[in-house]
């Protein structure tokens, strides 16, 4: 079925939402709900379809042209198609890298546009934000280096500079990211966590984890500075403003693990660590949701 469905997508226009929406969803699930052997074959089929990749390029570009709805939570059929497009491309990035699959047509995206979609948001529905963050996470994991994707809009801070300044040297280390992009992105991710939407929180924390990991590899000083921002502590207090056992929320545990990993002692203290251990000792571990159990396991390993 991959052949006719992918060929059908290649013959469509981005405005053919009624046909493209289920088709792209089918391609997405074909990649994820299959055996590793079949998964590799599926990736090969999709990446060899030039018309499909050209269509995906057009779909993603529609993100910058969309008209914000009156209600941010409203998901139109056009926005739903964008979600499918971003998720499919994120998956193709991941599996192309995993299997080193030959690419017959590259995609081109402006990094500044992608970052601005998260930073400024413009009444974007939660699902669209989550989809774009999944794509951004895939980019960060691959150090912005993929044979499937050409990154445009890379920072030019060093061009024409005879005496590189400290900020320029940091930009060079973080390339293609720039320091002036990193901090607005972190602040935006923090603000999104305050919404306390489960799906959004999972995506935001995963994106934040990957971002700090990328920064740490590129420039440890910048990564540690980001991880130790005082606003993180206020964010934790905001997230913990809930019912009992609030320390055992998956996103809280993962944030605590992140701060422990990068030694942000001004964010998480021995007191918070003790409180988490106390709550865990009193909880019925067998009844904890899978996401909580996994996050608690990672936290204890980090401790």
Automatic annotation (TrEMBL):
Source species, domain of life: Eukaryota
Single biological process term from Gene Ontology: meiosis I
Transmembrane parts of this sequence: none
InterPro entries linked to this entry: Immune_Signaling-Apoptosis_Reg
Stated name of the protein: MEI1 protein
Species of the source: Cochlearius cochlearius
């Amino acid at each position: 079925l991959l052949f006719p469905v992918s060929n059908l997508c290649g013959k469509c226009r981005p405005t053919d939402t009624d046909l493209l929406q289920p088709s792209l969803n089918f391609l997405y699930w074909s990649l994820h709900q299959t055996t590793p052997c079949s998964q590799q074959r599926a990736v090969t089929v999709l990446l060899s379809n030039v018309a499909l990749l050209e269509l995906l390029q057009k779909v993603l570009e529609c993100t910058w042209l969309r008209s914000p709805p009156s209600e941010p939570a409203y998901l139109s059929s056009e926005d739903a198609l964008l979600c499918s497009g971003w998720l499919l491309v994120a998956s193709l990035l991941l599996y192309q890298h995993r299997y080193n699959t030959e690419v017959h047509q590259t995609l081109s995206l402006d990094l500044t546009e992608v970052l601005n979609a998260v930073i400024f948001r413009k009444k974007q529905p939660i699902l669209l934000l989550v989809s774009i963050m999944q794509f951004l996470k895939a980019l960060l994991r691959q150090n912005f280096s993929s044979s499937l994707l050409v990154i445009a809009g890379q920072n030019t801070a060093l061009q024409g500079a005879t005496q590189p300044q400290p900020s320029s040297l940091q930009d060079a280390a973080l390339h293609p990211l720039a320091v002036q992009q990193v901090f607005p992105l972190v602040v935006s991710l923090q603000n999104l966590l305050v919404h306390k939407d489960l799906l959004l929180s999972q995506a935001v924390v995963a994106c934040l984890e990957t971002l700090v990991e990328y920064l740490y590899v590129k420039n440890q000083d910048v990564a540690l500075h980001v991880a130790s921002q005082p606003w993180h502590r206020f964010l934790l207090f905001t997230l913990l403003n809930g019912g009992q056992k609030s320390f055992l929320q998956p996103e809280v545990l993962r944030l605590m693990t992140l701060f422990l990993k990068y030694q942000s002692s001004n964010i998480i203290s021995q007191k918070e660590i003790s409180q988490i251990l106390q709550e865990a000792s009193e909880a019925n571990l067998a009844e904890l949701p899978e996401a909580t159990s996994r996050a608690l396991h990672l936290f204890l390993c980090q401790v």
